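F.,

This is the one I mentioned.
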C-alpha cells in the first residue's frame, strides 16, 4: 500500500485564494488593503529568499507588502526604533521579524517588542500564552496552523486519536502539540532524546516530525495507516556534489506504511507562507473591529 500524498502546494493555493477574497472585501469596506511589513537584518541567503517570497506572496493576494532590508551592522537600538514605528503605523496589520538575527541583537527582546495584535508569526508571549490557555484571540504560529490544515485534508479524526509530535521548539513543536490537544487528541511530545523513540512513534495515529534531523524517522517507526506530517527541511549532500532537500522522515520508506504523508519539498513549506497571509488578514480584521 502506498500512502496518499498530501499536496501542500495545491492546498496553499486554496488558502491564498480564500485570503485574496478576504483582502478584496477588507479593501472595499475599509478603503485600504491589509499591510504586512517584513524586517530582515543582514544578508543570510536563505533569509533573503524567504523574505522576498513573503513580500511577493502578500502582494499577489492584494495586500500591501513591504520588506525592510537592513544591514548586518544595524544596532539593536535602531531595530527597536523601527519596530516602534511599525507598531504605531495604523496601515500596518502584520509585522514579521525574520530569524535568525545577528548575534549582536537580543532576538528574544526584539520579538517581545512586536505589538501582539500585529504578531502574525504568533511568537509573542501574549499569543503563545493565549494558545496555551486555550483562549480565543491568539495569532497562532504559521507552520503548526498549516500542519493542522494538512491533517484536515487527510481526513484524520483527531478526537481521541493518539498524536505524537517529535520536536519541542517554541516555533513548531509546542504550539503544534497545543493545537492537537485543542482538537481533543491525546498528545505526546517527543524529541531526539526520548527513550524508545521508535516505539513512541509507532503508537501515533497522527505523527508530526519537527526534530530537524534528516530522515531520522524511518518507515519501521510508522503505524500502518497513520497520517504523517513532515516539517523538516534538511539539506543533504549527494555523491555528485549537489545537495538535496529532505525531511525528518525517510519518505520512500514511510510512504509504503502511512495512510497519508506530506512530501519534502511541496508539503508543509508552502503552507507556512499561506498561513502567514491568513494571519495578516485575521489581524487586520481584528484591529478594525476593536
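My design for it:
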Amino acid at each position: 500500500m502506498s500512502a496518499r500524498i498530501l499536496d501542500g502546494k495545491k492546498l496553499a493555493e486554496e488558502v491564498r485564494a480564500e485570503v485574496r477574497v478576504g483582502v478584496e472585501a477588507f479593501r472595499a469596506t475599509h478603503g485600504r488593503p491589509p499591510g504586512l511589513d517584513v524586517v530582515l537584518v543582514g544578508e543570510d541567503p536563505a533569509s533573503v529568499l524567504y523574505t522576498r517570497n513573503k513580500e511577493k506572496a502578500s502582494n499577489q493576494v492584494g495586500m500591501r507588502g513591504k520588506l525592510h532590508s537592513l544591514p548586518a551592522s544595524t544596532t539593536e537600538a535602531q531595530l527597536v526604533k523601527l519596530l516602534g514605528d511599525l507598531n504605531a503605523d495604523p496601515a500596518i496589520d502584520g509585522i514579521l521579524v525574520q530569524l535568525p538575527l545577528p548575534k549582536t541583537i537580543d532576538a528574544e527582546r526584539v520579538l517581545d517588542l512586536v505589538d501582539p495584535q500585529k504578531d502574525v508569526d504568533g511568537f509573542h508571549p501574549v499569543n503563545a500564552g493565549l494558545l496555551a490557555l486555550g483562549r480565543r484571540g491568539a495569532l497562532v504560529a504559521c507552520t503548526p496552523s498549516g500542519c493542522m490544515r494538512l491533517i484536515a485534508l487527510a481526513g484524520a479524526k483527531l478526537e481521541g486519536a493518539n498524536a505524537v509530535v517529535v520536536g519541542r521548539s517554541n516555533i513548531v513543536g509546542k504550539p503544534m502539540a497545543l493545537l492537537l490537544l485543542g482538537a481533543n487528541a491525546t498528545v505526546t511530545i517527543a524529541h531526539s532524546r526520548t527513550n524508545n523513540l521508535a516505539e513512541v512513534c509507532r503508537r501515533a495515529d497522527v505523527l508530526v516530525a519537527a526534530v530537524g534531523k534528516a530522515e531520522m524517522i524511518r518507515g519501521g517507526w510508522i503505524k500502518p495507516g497513520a497520517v504523517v506530517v513532515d516539517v523538516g527541511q534538511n539539506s543533504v549532500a549527494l555523491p555528485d556534489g549537489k545537495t538535496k532537500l529532505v525531511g525528518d522522515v525517510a519518505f520512500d520508506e514511510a510512504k509504503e506504511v502511512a495512510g497519508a504523508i506530506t512530501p519534502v519539498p511541496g508539503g508543509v513549506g508552502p503552507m507556512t507562507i499561506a498561513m502567514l497571509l491568513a494571519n495578516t488578514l485575521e489581524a487586520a480584521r481584528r484591529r478594525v473591529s476593536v
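DSSP finds ten helices and eleven strands in the chain.

Talk soon.
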